[in-house]
Amino acid sequence: MRCSDVEAFWDEMREGGEPRSEHVLAHLRRCRTCQEAFEQCEGVAYCLNCLPVVEPPKSLVPRILEHIASMRTRTRGPAGTDDVARINSPLGDLIVAWRPSGITFVGLVRGGDADAARERVERRLRRPLRDAAPPQWVVDAVDRFFKTWQVDMARVDISGLSDFEQAALRKAAQIPPGEVRSYGWIAREIGHPLAARAVGQAMARNPVALLFPCHRVVDASGALHNYGYGIEVKARLLRMEGYLKSGG
Amino acid sequence: MVPQARTAERKAAASAPTTLRSAESVPSVERFERIVDDYQRRLYGFALRMTGNREDAEEIVQDAFVRAFRALGKMTEEQRTELRLQPWLYTITLNVTRNRLRSKRPTNVALDALADPDALLNNTQEGPEQPEQIVERGTDLALVEQALLQLPMHLRAAATLRFIEGRSHPEIAEILNQPIGTVKSHVHRAVRILRRILGPQVGRIAPTEEPANAV
């Protein structure tokens, strides 16, 4: 047995049951270099094993459980079919779904694949869609957003979301145009101060982009953090609303 | 004062879930709180060793549990019965860790350290050893922590699971979804690099007795 082979056996010898251990031991008795190598390996393992077990902070479990609880209350959402259409906007083509009760989905159409965009909406709403011409109230609601950055909440329907998600999005809708708030701010405001990450997730799952302005929610540090349609779009929107200076 | 190794303690804590399962022990979203309670310490410790950063570790563990909760909700009863919870949770935690570290910073550090392990050693003070001093011991362990973080991620994962979490080769193979041979070779490479980085320190921290199976 050669020195280069021996070292590779060190970890297996620790486990026991290595069939070639007799040969390895015989080599070790003769070879001081390999003996030292084994001792050093043992030293490394020992050092790693000595690293202290660090306790997680007490707040970790409550925070996780709060997050999980926010996911539990997700309801099935209304049955039936939503209507869907593409509407032109200053930000590019939007795909918009609605029911008589209100607008249920707004998203940017990325790329040219209309079918893929439609499928994404169907998956998100978990309801079939029917192509239709948008009624005037839908067109007006979208127009109004791009003119005033305000939304008539009576025109939006997010009843398919969990209570937590609805609360988080409604709170986001209270952020005035031209301003931003943090995920933690929303969490505190809706009475779940530990659930900042769950708020982040609710924003990420926002089915009615723009109208529920999840783009106005940013990191505690003020960094834009993330956006479903890309951070550039988030920055562009905030510029349009007057929060970021152009070029900022 | 020589720091006490903790494998036994860790193993005892780790052996809770068994292969025999009653209906109550099949993992489910209904009893998810229990899973969080049982595994949060272990996953936090793992994420902390992988990242070296408490804040990262906390967020990683939270995200990992959220992912696990979602995935469990989509599984059939049969899938859940067959699920090996502990390795599965480690795997999820590792994936979240990878994504997070990848998006956070490039890993130039690791390459630098491999090229020049002396750079790390130069930071440590030479001079007579005062093993009784806890401060000194703290310094040494900090050095070990740092050395581990210098490893490329796949070697760090192998070494952490093997020597800190006390997992067996087959368990690590399952967690990393790699052949056992690959796991052994990664563990081996990790130890070689750590020996180079820690060289002189290893002797200082290691116990004075001969390792039981060395000669």
Topology:
The complex is a heterodimer of chains A (248) and B (215).
Chain A: H1 3-6, H2 10-15, H3 21-30, H4 32-50, H5 60-72, E1 82-87, E2 94-99, E3 102-108, H6 114-125, E4 129-131, H7 136-148, H8 163-172, E5 181-182, H9 183-189, H10 196-204, E6 217-218, H11 231-241
Parallel strand pairs in A: 1-4, 5-6
Antiparallel strand pairs in A: 1-2, 2-3
Chain B: H1 7-14, H2 32-51, H3 54-74, H4 77-82, H5 85-104, H6 108-115, H7 117-121, H8 134-150, H9 153-164, H10 169-176, H11 180-205
Helix pairs in contact in B: 2-3, 2-5, 3-5, 5-10, 8-11, 9-11, 10-11
Strand percentage of chain A: 5-15%
**Count of DSSP strands of chain A:** 6
Radius of gyration of CA atoms of chain A, rounded to a whole number = 28 Å
In terms of DSSP E residues, the strand content of chain B is under 5%
End-to-end span of chain A in angstroms? 66 Å
Order of helices and strands of chain B: HHHHHHHHHHH
Question: Which oligomerization state do the chains in this entry correspond to?
Answer: heterodimer
Roughly what is the average pLDDT of chain A, rounded to an integer?
Answer: 87
**Largest Cβ-defined interface:** A-B, 44 and 63 residues
CATH class placement of the largest domain in chain B: Mainly Alpha
What percent of the residues of chain B sit in helical stretches (DSSP H or I)? over 70%
CATH architectural arrangement of the largest domain in chain B: Orthogonal Bundle
Total helix count of chain B?
11
